[in-house]
Amino acid sequence: MKVIQFVAAALVAAPSAAFFAPVGTNSFVAQQRTCARSSVAPVRMADASEVEAQVIEVVGEQLEKQGSVKIDSNFIEDLDADSLDTVEIIMSLEEKFDIEISEDDAQKMVTVKDAVDYISANV
What we know:
mainly alpha
């Protein structure tokens, strides 16, 4: 009998909340749902220094000039790359970073820094 009186008192105090509340819900469940949404891992952005190291490694391997490649190295002037070398570098970077680099964007990449900046912005 006391349970019925308690429920009746709750209905009188807040009839709309009791009427519209789904069966089996409580504030703990709502908090749990909120916490579950906030625990989703944020999207990881590319770390520029990590990208830089990997680009330098790829360029060095492609041109067989490990240790000679610097961030400000120009592919053609400093590293003696020809057009085929630059195409192979772009293809290797696409594979390494799982991205697609358009022909227009590839032509704009004349230095290692250009490649690092492009990849950092698009990964």
